[in-house]
Amino acid sequence: MLCQLCKMREATVHFTRIVNQQKVEMYLCEQCARENSDLKININKLFSAMLGLDEPEIEDAPFTTLRCGFCGMTIEEFNRTGLLGCAKCYDVFRDSIQIMLKRIHGNVKHHGKIPKKISGRVRDEYNLRSLKEELQRCIEREEYEKAAQIRDKIKALENNLQKKEG
Length: 166
Hints:
cadmium ion binding; two-stranded antiparallel sheet
């Protein structure tokens, strides 16, 4: 495979970078990799090289950073420190926060302990909601046999909840 930058030498360096939550891969020769030691590759040049275009057709846009309009905190500061500047930052950096939580905890939804006195009912209601969501996904994917099984579980759980209430 040829180097995606110079298109003359054999590519021996594989470079992967995440840009805007998209995986971008580059195959470079040793010389191009050395020349770009910081590996700050212009995205327009990257895509034009991947598509085989000589010149990028898109003009270089000025780099803009995500910033909280209330306290002035930037996404770079948040990523570096892990701390937010104000309550508005939660809205501004929502996507970054969710990505970080998913990476750390494996999920963005809290699944904590339930008090024993109410655990049975709360757990049943939670399971009922989860089953209804799963039923909807099965219907969208046209998995009707699995959907029928889930429907039966939902009916049994609803009957169980009604018996506990009545």
